[in-house]
Amino acid sequence: MIIAGAGGHARELLGILAEAGRVEDVFLFDDVSPDAPAIIWGRFPVLRSADEARRILAGDPGFILGVGKPGARKLLYEKMIALGGEVRALTSPYARIGVYQVEIGPGANIMTGAVITQDIKMGIGCLVHCNVTIHHDCRIGDFCELSPGCHLLGKVNVGAQCSIGAGAVVLPGVTIGEKAVIGAGGVVTRDIAPGRIVKGMPAK
What we know:
By secondary structure, the chain is an alpha/beta fold. Helices cover 17% and strands 27% of the residues. The chain folds into two domains: 2-88, Rossmann fold, CATH 3.40.50.20; 89-192, UDP N-Acetylglucosamine Acyltransferase, domain 1, CATH 2.160.10.
């Protein structure tokens, strides 16, 4: 198994894997950071080239997205698929996932304390950070990042590659266009156009 990334978020994923008893034969992959270590915590090797990653994927094609930013998650997803990988989801055993009509796309990271209720649909490669809540009838596009402690209330629609900041609240029925960014602590009371950056209370 490869974690695609070797920074802070990748190390958090190693913790979730440890909680699930799945830390055997785990590698990290970072071919862009010149200062990336060769090994994490004296145990987890960091692959530094596409050829190294391809060799590991030939034996075990599974990989987990281990970076946070939406654009980086999409790029790494495409790179690892091209190397022969198959994306895997990783969900903390301490997250709570609803039992009715919940569709979580491949490659999601669901972190500790996240609460996902009922009638939820989430696209490919989404990151749901610690203590996020996603309420009924929400729709979330591919490669979105929901930062720690943010809250999507009922019937929120989030376009692909959006970033919702830490502690932000999106009120019921709001639509957020793709690649929009909501600042930390923002309260979103109305629809946000694609590509917009908003912050504040109410978010502007």
